[in-house]
Specification:
This protein has 167 residues and is an all-alpha fold. It is built from seven helices and no strands. The chain folds into two domains: 107 residues, Four Helix Bundle (Hemerythrin (Met), subunit A), CATH 1.20.120; 45 residues. Helix 2 packs antiparallel against helix 3. It starts with a helix and ends in a 6-residue tail after the last helix.
Length: 167
Amino acid sequence: MAPLLFFYFGGVIVGTATLVVTLRNPIYSAISLLVTFFHVAGIFVLLNAEFIAAVQILVYAGAILVLYLFVVMLLNLKREERYHRQYLLGAFLGVVILTELALIFFRTTFRAGIGPYTTAHLQSVGNTEAVGMALFTTYLLPFEVASLILLVAMIGAIILAKRVVPR
């Protein structure tokens, strides 16, 4: 049953992620992105990572998508030309990335249960505690760097949004 659900979630994720990129209406693109986020949470549930699935729904489907919709609504989006010069570069980069993924897929052996966070360890400790321990021990420096980058972005947004009142 689990492989069938995985292929369902994976197929819907690939399909709706393609729709996010190809749809011309940004609202329809956002709805496709919402469906993608919910199905990614389904993949996390299949992996017994219920905490990460809940965070996926709360953060991405709840907060990030709402911010995206605010930006789309605030911008005055107009139709652009049908063909851009960037399409050729995008198609080339897409083929390069797909080739790299195919090479990685066919030259890699997948092994389960290697490393400190095996399935048995996660079941004994708990999902939330394992995420917290990994985040605040092994990945503490990247976590702090990401928080500093977000702080700088927030300060920059405040400075850019600040209106200058004429005297």
